[in-house]
Design a protein that fits this description.
InterPro entries: DUF547 (IPR006869). The protein is mainly alpha-helical. The chain folds into two domains: 170 residues, no CATH class; 53 residues, no CATH class. The protein is built from ten helices and seven strands. Strands 5-6-7 form a three-stranded mixed β-sheet. A two-stranded antiparallel sheet has the order 1-2. Strands 3-4 form a two-stranded antiparallel ribbon. Helix 3 runs antiparallel to helix 4. The longest helix is centred in the first third of the chain and has 23 residues. The N terminus is likely disordered.
Length: 278
């Protein structure tokens, strides 16, 4: 009969197997990210005429998001002052007191995107310095499933906002260019807060910037390489052919030639390193 007392080596092997299994499960989930059922508590009715003050987030973005010549927006996390950290936390506190049902549909959209992005930046600042957002959370799974926010009495995670509010309610693939995961491979964190009046302008700008960047599409040794976003969330487009059709609608310059005549994507890639100013 096997002893119930494990040696230190056996314990280490067991932990490694557990971590490996957890990583495999996370990887499997990342390959099939369909939108969840829309959270009925936050269905965007389009009614309500109230607005939300996003000036504090605007000021933070203007101060610390640094556009690079490469087209990538980096964040100067190390430069954020104590006062601006406090202001960011106060902004998040104020957002969590908003009655979402009192907002119009586009105002609600801006609310959720700004809440997601500001909360993500705050998570990085709380643990900074970190090499990747995936270093946060249990077993290196990232913070996306952690209940870190409360809106209208309901505890929410970043995944809840993206997969049970934004994606299923708005059904707009451009959402993937709006929410930012603090990584080099991710679409840019915008240099200004989302506003109801700027919704389509900012979504289109985000799509164009990403699609025409090597982060979105590039030529690799074995053919066309696309961002893993188009693999993880392919269900939102429908197929690789639909992804390419979408990308061509925003393509400019060299990307037009890169995507011309393409009918498939040969591989996918993503850079999880932190989107920080070095």
């Amino acid at each position: 009969m096997r002893s119930v007392v494990h040696t230190a080596a056996e314990g280490l092997i067991s932990r490694r197997r557990f971590v490996g299994l957890a990583a495999a499960i996370v990887a499997l989930q990342a390959c099939s990210k369909g939108p969840g059922k829309a959270d009925e508590a936050f269905l965007a009715s389009g009614g309500g005429g109230k607005t939300v003050d996003h000036d504090a987030w605007d000021k933070f973005l203007a101060a610390y998001v640094r556009p690079q010549k490469s087209g990538i927006n980096l964040v100067a996390y190390s430069a954020v002052s104590d006062g601006d950290r406090d202001s960011l936390r106060s902004y998040l506190d104020r957002l969590q007191k908003v009655a979402v049902k009192d907002l119009g549909r586009d105002e609600q959209f801006a609310f959720w995107v700004n809440l997601y992005n500001a909360a993500t930046v705050n998570l990085i600042l709380e643990e900074y310095p970190v090499a990747s957002i995936r270093d946060l959370g249990l077993l290196g799974q990232g913070p996306w499933g952690d209940k870190i926010l409360t809106v209208e009495g309901k505890d929410l995670s970043l995944d809840d906002i993206e997969h049970t509010v934004l994606r299923p309610i708005w059904k707009d693939v451009r959402i993937h260019y709006a929410v930012n995961c603090a990584s080099m491979g991710c679409p840019n964190l915008a240099t200004r807060a989302y506003r109801a009046s700027l919704k389509d302008e900012m979504l289109n700008a985000g799509a164009k910037a990403y699609i025409n960047s090597p982060r979105g599409f590039r030529l690799g040794d074995d053919g066309l390489v696309a961002s893993s976003i188009y693999d993880w969330y392919q269900v939102d487009w429908g197929s690789p052919e639909k992804v390419l059709e979408h990308a061509r609608s925003f393509a400019a310059g060299k990307t037009v030639d890169l995507l011309k005549g393409r009918t498939t994507i040969d591989s996918y890639d993503y850079d999880w390193s932190l989107n920080e100013v070095v």
